[in-house]
Fold this sequence. Notes:
Elements: H1 4-15, H2 19-26, H3 30-38, H4 47-54, H5 58-63, E1 78-84, E2 87-92
Antiparallel strand pairs: 1-2
Helix pairs in contact: 2-3
Amino acid sequence: MNGLNERLKKARLEKGISQRELAARIGRAQSAIAALESGRNKESTNIATIAQVLGVDPVWLETGNGQMKNAYKSDEIIYENQARNGYIQFKQIKFIRRL
């Protein structure tokens, strides 16, 4: 995988979610994900959040270094995409460490 665009698309497809669903889960427009996957945008300020949703290591997603999968299961994360006073409220965050 050469670039962020390829790694993002690979991780999203392996997760089995659409660009629209990923965008909704991180509070962005689908066009922002499309721009990243096409290579029009070379970087994002949402790497950590995207990686968490996709269940991949943020360092791998951003740089290609390290392992793709991280030690946490992202399926248990539920987001409320509403910002209040510049903060995002998380209703539930549950990390399960893989053995």
